[in-house]
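tokens incoming
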């Protein structure tokens, strides 16, 4: 009844009474999964088994064990699968990578990134309920962790501390990642307060500031030592999600089963790093870990 009402309000021709009914429709090419975290695994698995291409919201799954199953199923059946890490596809992030790869800021020494907002505590909400995969790390901390992985790769040492909500999930997490080349990443996520939500990448020749909110950047500042700052702007074209949608369409049109920009191996690395951070903080989801 809810689907029918929604379809009538917004002028859709089709609506469904269940997820399997949607996946059984032969006219459906690709399905975007934006259900709560704890449902991502079963929803994605069902769609893959029915031969549907899938774009699944982050976090891809609750843990890397679940994700390994999905990746194996998708690759075995040659079914397209991608994590909706929309930040990776934004022009601002592409510019940051270009500046770094050109060596304009030299060797990266320090990366700082945070994401925080004040959430109203409700033990039954998806943010705080462990059954729903609650906690700041999987919901918003995934963004700073993603940035560190994208810029610096997988760390050689992981340290983390946590402040937990009464439900046992992480309200706030502070993460320190160390690399053999001497780089350090300092990352934070919290539901306890609003943070600046910016990111700074410091090299031995200069720095990049990704302005707030860095995970959907509309501007970055490049500052080289002893030179004036250079500004780059990226006006919003829509809401930002269009870039990952276009990547999915381009992949399908070219017969690809994975994105070359943000592939399944990258998503698995990210989930394994999140697992390692949770282990350091003793953040456990009893129904899934």
């Amino acid at each position: 009844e809810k689907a029918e009402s929604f379809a009538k309000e917004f002028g859709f021709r089709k609506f469904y009474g269940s997820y399997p009914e949607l996946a059984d429709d032969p006219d459906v090419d690709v399905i975007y999964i934006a259900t709560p975290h704890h449902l991502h695994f079963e929803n994605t698995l069902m769609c893959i088994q029915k031969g549907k291409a899938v774009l699944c919201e982050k976090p891809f799954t609750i843990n890397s064990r679940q994700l390994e199953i999905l990746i194996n199923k998708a690759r075995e059946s040659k079914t397209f699968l991608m994590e909706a890490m929309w930040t990776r596809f934004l022009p601002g992030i592409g510019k940051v990578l270009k500046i770094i790869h050109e060596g304009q800021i030299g060797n990266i020494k320090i990366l700082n990134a945070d994401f925080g907002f004040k959430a109203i505590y409700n033990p039954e909400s998806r943010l705080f309920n462990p059954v729903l995969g609650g906690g700041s790390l999987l919901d918003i901390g995934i963004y700073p962790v993603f940035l560190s992985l994208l810029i610096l790769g997988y760390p050689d040492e992981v340290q983390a501390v946590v402040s937990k909500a009464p439900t046992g999930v992480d309200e706030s997490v502070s993460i320190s990642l160390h690399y053999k080349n001497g780089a350090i990443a300092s990352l934070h996520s919290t539901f306890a307060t609003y943070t600046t939500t910016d990111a700074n990448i410091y090299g031995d020749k200069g720095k990049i500031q990704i302005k707030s909110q860095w995970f959907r950047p509309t501007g970055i500042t490049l500052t080289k030592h002893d030179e004036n700052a250079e500004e780059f702007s990226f006006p919003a074209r829509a809401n930002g999600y269009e870039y990952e949608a276009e990547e999915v369409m381009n992949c399908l049109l070219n017969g690809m089963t994975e994105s070359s920009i943000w592939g399944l191996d990258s998503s698995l690395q990210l989930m394994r790093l999140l697992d390692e951070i949770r282990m350091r903080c003793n953040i456990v989801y009893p129904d899934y870990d």
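note: The longest strand covers residues 108-116.
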